[in-house]
Automatic annotation (TrEMBL):
InterPro entries: ETF_a/b_N, ETF_b, ETF_beta_N, Rossmann-like_a/b/a_fold
Similarity remark: Belongs to the ETF beta-subunit/FixA family.
Residue ranges occupied by any Electron transfer flavoprotein alpha/beta-subunit N-terminal domain in the UniProt entry: 24-214
Keyword terms, alphabetized: Electron transport, Transport
Subunit comment: Heterodimer of an alpha and a beta subunit.
Protein name as catalogued: Electron transfer flavoprotein subunit beta
Cited Pfam families: ETF
Known role: The electron transfer flavoprotein serves as a specific electron acceptor for other dehydrogenases. It transfers the electrons to the main respiratory chain via ETF-ubiquinone oxidoreductase (ETF dehydrogenase).
Cofactor(s) it depends on: FAD
Amino acid sequence: MSLRIVVCVKYVPDATGDRKFADDLTVDRDDVDGLLSELDEYAVEQALQIAEEADDAEVTVLTVGPEDAKDALRKALSMGADKAVHVEDDDLHGTDVMGTSLVLAKAIEKTGYDVVIAGMASTDGTMGVLPAILAERLGVPQVTLLSEVKIEDGKVTGRRDGDSASEQLEASLPAVVSVTDQSGEARYPSFKGIMAAKKKPVESLELDDLDIDADEVGLAGAWTAVDSAAERPARTAGTIVKDEGEGGKQLAGFLAEQKFI
Ligand SMILES: Cc1cc2nc3c(=O)[nH]c(=O)nc-3n(C[C@H](O)[C@H](O)[C@H](O)COP(=O)(O)OP(=O)(O)OC[C@H]3O[C@@H](n4cnc5c(N)ncnc54)[C@H](O)[C@@H]3O)c2cc1C
């Protein structure tokens, strides 16, 4: 039977653009360009490598996000994924990690899976907890933050590199995996891949399709709330130290004054 791999990919505001909060203190996603989170490209890459090793495998990419999030799905499809699932619903506005993990879990159960692969963190929210919450919701083992991952004989194995030691981990399938930016460079989509992606299926789902009530998600269902946000102060000109023999001392004095040393 085919190995069913689901990759969770997030459409995020471009970090090089000007990012702002909207009036309700949610991230303003309308006035900024977005893209597939770079950290999720590593997850797509590992899924494709696992699929290439397996005799028979299917890679589905899944996102919860606004209409434009289809761009993230298209990029993953052009890298080589087989099909995509897009969960989009007006009631998702303001959903936090608890709601997002609920929606992803229900969509994954509906799609069917043997292994779920996620990134180590998104480049906007950067909570890094979603894969663990997802595993709990699905009731399957989690093998997170892997810099090397393999699937063989109904098991996922991998290496997690810490500051002082590396761990070798193993779990039976089905399981949730997350991979780090050390797991291997993500491939660039080829021209052929970009053309092929236009014809690959993208299934659209709403909350009703997943039996999720509006009050379980959105700002009302969120477990976290942003109380206030302020504009970052404008940059000041800074202090220039001219070295005329006493530069080192002046630098040390400046750092001490600022309480850096
Ligand atoms: C329209 C909309 C509005 C939102 N508004 C808010 C808000 O106001 N406040 C708030 O806290 N959150 C909001 N969210 C959810 C938020 O953007 C995150 O998806 C969620 O909080 C997870 O946190 P994270 O990105 O820090 O997860 P992390 O734990 O850092 O993510 C780890 C991995 O989980 C996967 N992942 C994360 N998010 C998604 C996703 N959406 N789809 C597919 N895979 C994913 C990726 O593989 C990622 O690498 C909103 C989402 C949508 C779609």
